[in-house]
Specification:
The structure is a homodimer of 469-residue chains. In chain A, the strands form four sheets. In chain A, strands 15-12-14-13-17-18-16 form a seven-stranded antiparallel beta sheet, with helices on both faces. In chain A, strands 5-6-10-8-9 form a five-stranded antiparallel beta sheet. The first copy, chain A, has helices at 9-19, 28-31, 55-68, 120-128, 146-152, 159-162, 197-201, 235-247, 260-269, 294-308, 322-333, 335-342, 357-371, 397-417, 436-439, 442-455; strands at 24-25, 48-50, 72-75, 92-95, 102-106, 111-114, 132-133, 169-175, 181-183, 210-217, 219-220, 224-232, 254-259, 283-291, 317-318, 345-351, 374-380, 385-391. Chain A folds into four domains: 9-98, Uridine Diphospho-n-acetylenolpyruvylglucosamine Reductase, domain 2 (2-Layer Sandwich), CATH 3.30.43.10; 102-220, Uridine Diphospho-n-acetylenolpyruvylglucosamine Reductase, domain 3, CATH 3.30.465; 224-336, Alpha-Beta Plaits; 343-439, Alpha-Beta Plaits. The first copy, chain A, contains 16 helices and 18 strands. In chain A, helix 1 (9-19) packs antiparallel against helix 3. With 469 residues, the first copy, chain A, is α+β, with helices and mostly antiparallel strands. In chain A, strand 17 (374-380) and strand 18 (385-391) form a beta hairpin. Chains A and B meet through helix 7, strand 11, helix 8 and helix 16 of A and helix 7, strand 11, helix 8 and helix 16 of B. Chains A, B: This is Glycolate oxidase. Chains A, B: Residues 42-221 form the FAD-binding PCMH-type domain. Chains A, B: One of its GO terms (molecular function) is FAD binding.
Chain lengths: 469, 469
């Protein structure tokens, strides 16, 4: 394995030459906010932070780092949940925060060309003003970058109807570790021209190149939506209701699951009393439908209500106005923060075929009993994507950083057995890579490592993420 | 470059041992139907044809060919339009026709697991019986294989609303050229676990491995549809209407364009008098909407009619019943055959952002004038996917196989300039590979060739397709 060099004063001077003096940080204090993301309590200080704002600058930085064998870590909004943007080897951290321009909203073709440092919600709002819709919608949308979403192939609540980031990316401008710049595809909805480099880059967690321009497809903005919150007396039956709704022919635009603790904790955290949780309620489903015809949405809501009434539920809360909808969505979106505020935790991003959710949930709880941990589960149930938050609680250091790993491995082995995988939308990064062997055999892992080597022969770009190589 | 060996009697005996005597063909007469596909008039006879029906057999065949340096060509239904299934170097042709079982329709998870040799229409019908829908729908659906569709990332008329093959593939069992067998992903709707090997294989035209099992996602079957045929007095304005319809907020489930000649030729070919084409009509749009609510579909049809009435059109034909719908669809589906029956032709599978269609169409005609060829254009206008059929007519041999190449290059350069690419759904195969330089620079081409090398270090599998390597 290549040995990295340390960043020297000469390197810093060269970076200042490329990006401008004020856009290169080398003092610990200014760099400290680049030392972590939202993943547990990981902390890695880079040796230097550089903030380019043109493709040419990124190319020059990569050339320098390639020549000098400096480790490079690309970074978006720093909201990642698997440590993908952390400078594990120190070196040069490239912050994409100044790539913050939406280049063109093409209303004729329903496309947007953007730089990667645009905040996802800002992009969504900008296209919304034109009557257009970019559905992928992570909980962190108010602070995450669209480029980071591409690196992690993010999802969010709308994925159940509209798909994930990969389903919207048409074309990417990519700076390779050598400094060469390519476009991965074309600005078209159908493409059978060579290997799909675009889809290879989406979800590659910044290990293959640095994305500097993004072309996304958009769809017409649905004009209406309806939202309801359904309380269940059993968490497993809430999970079972999810697939029953789809089997009845409905495709909700969101179908979110929250265990009792999740909703209770977030209600306290945001000091909301909008949802009264009865004693015997164990879980909730938050269900949205959207479209252009209000009368159709009413029919669908009634149809879905009929399905869930076949389970042991409490009283359904139908959101009456946009304020109440916002309130319910706020609760769902801030669950992760609330859990974090409540206790140190590890978040597992399990995903299974949706009808297997009840088995997964039961398995998680059984494994928790075996290893003595409590978990709070919530997530995008319509996609079979369950976020399992393992609470530190009273676990000892040895349990937390020792035997718990075996418990997590058991959860992931169950996920695999159910046809699922270990990350639905958070990526592998640093924290899940030791579990990759559960999903991929050595042949597949070797293929991935060789692909990495093709793009990054000197192995300088985000090394140690996804796998060791 | 590796030099291939010739197939010997010993190799044939070994193949018979693996697949069974009756499933190995080595006489010219039996093999002749494997020597061509639907691409122009290409003809390459393999040295031996083998028809395995298990993954283990495919693995053994690949091991043998790898060890003996025999060229291998995988083949589906033989309906390809770019020569991808042709045994350019002779050698071993693996016909997947006996991989014809639908393994499981999973109604709980809206998924199907199938072998690759299942005919696309049969798969569609099987899931339809369960109220489920697999939308990708090439014109050849009655004879093409689902495995071939994956190799070419096929589309078809429904792609405009529902996406192409890549949007439905969740997981693939793949036999590598070494004989090793991997699964590329997991059976889930969201996946952020390592590089997307699944999407790398989709559209790779059988150059990376042989797909032996396929997991597809399905959606609920829409209960209703409506269809109309709109005649335009100018072909360019028909193209312009396409993007106007989307900009008005409608997403039809099909939006097909046919030039006058296309519809006239196919009407003669199938001896149909169901459409009367007025003298001054230059092109038609066939527009479908689908969904569960007939009253909504009526509203959408009326909305779309209002948009097209803003153009210079003739009388709209609304299909009155399922028989008339079928008749109109038959005309559209059989255009390619009709053109083929009319004259030798070359088909170009151009695709651009949809609002650029009028510019593309005008450009194609202008280039045709310059080089002296007539073209008949039709295709999936909603996706910006225009099939340009260049008619041999009275062109000399020198024009047809000589200067015409420059004309095609000019068309593809225009496509590139408009943000498009040279194949939307037919693939590159043998016939378009000399134009790849228009779309991809040397750096991208090198990446693709290196990816090929990782999967196929001895370069035995479908060599010479997509690019020379």
């Amino acid at each position: 394995m290549t040995t990295f060099n340390k960043v020297t004063a000469a390197h810093i001077a060269a970076l200042r030459e490329i990006a401008g003096t004020q856009y290169v940080l080398a003092d610990e204090e200014s760099m400290s906010r680049y030392a972590q993301d939202e993943t547990e309590d990981l902390h890695y200080l880079p040796e230097v932070v550089v903030k380019p704002n043109t493709t040419a600058q990124v190319s020059k930085i990569m050339q320098l780092c390639s020549q000098e064998l400096l480790p490079v870590t690309p970074r978006g909004g720093g909201t990642g949940l698997s440590g993908g943007a952390l400078a594990q080897f120190g070196g040069v951290l490239i912050s994409m925060e100044r790539f913050n321009r939406i280049i063109q909203i093409d209303e004729r073709n329903l496309q947007v060309t953007t730089e990667p440092g645009v905040i996802t919600e800002e992009l969504q709002n900008a296209v919304k003003e034109k009557g257009l819709f970019y559905p992928p919608d992570p909980s962190s949308r108010g602070t995450c970058f669209i480029g980071g979403n591409i690196a992690e192939n993010s999802g969010g609540p709308k994925a159940v109807k509209y798909g994930v980031v990969k389903d919207y990316v048409l074309n990417l401008e990519l700076v390779l570790p050598s400094g060469e710049v390519i476009w991965t595809g074309a600005n078209v909805l159908k493409n059978a021209t060579g290997y799909n480099l675009t889809q290879l880059v989406v979800g590659s967690e910044g290990t293959l190149g640095i994305v500097t321009k993004i072309v996304l497809r958009l769809i017409p903005l649905p004009k209406n939506d309806l939202l309801m919150l359904v309380p269940f007396r059993s968490a497993e039956s809430a999970c079972a209701a999810v697939s029953a709704i789809f089997r009845a022919g409905f495709t909700p635009s969101a179908m979110e699951f929250m265990e009792r603790d999740a909703l209770e904790w977030v209600s306290q955290y945001v000091q909301s009393s909008s949802v009264k949780i009865e004693e015997d309620i164990q879980a909730h489903l938050l269900i949205e439908v959207d479209g252009n015809y209000p009368e159709v949405l009413m029919q669908e809501m009634e149809g879905i209500a009929t399905v869930v009434e076949g389970f042991d539920i409490g009283e359904i809360l139908f959101a009456e106005d946009s304020q109440q909808k916002e309130e319910l969505w706020k609760l769902r979106r801030r669950v992760a923060e609330a859990v974090k505020a409540n206790s140190v935790y590890k978040e597992e991003d399990t995903v299974v075929p949706r009808a297997e959710l009840p088995v997964l949930l039961k398995g998680v709880k059984d494994i928790g009993k075996k290893y003595g941990f409590h978990s709070v589960c919530y997530g995008h149930a319509g996609d079979g994507n369950l976020h399992v938050n393992i609470i530190r609680g009273t676990l000892t250091e040895e349990q937390w950083n020792g035997t718990l790993r075996e418990g997590i491995r058991e959860i992931f082995e169950l996920v695999k057995q159910l046809g699922g995988t270990i990350s639905g939308e958070h990526g592998i990064g640093l924290v899940q890579k030791s579990y990759m062997d559960i999903i991929f055999d050595q042949t597949s892992m070797k293929l991935m490592k060789q692909i990495k080597q093709i793009f990054d022969p000197k192995n300088i770009l985000n090394r140690g993420k996804i796998f060791d190589c």
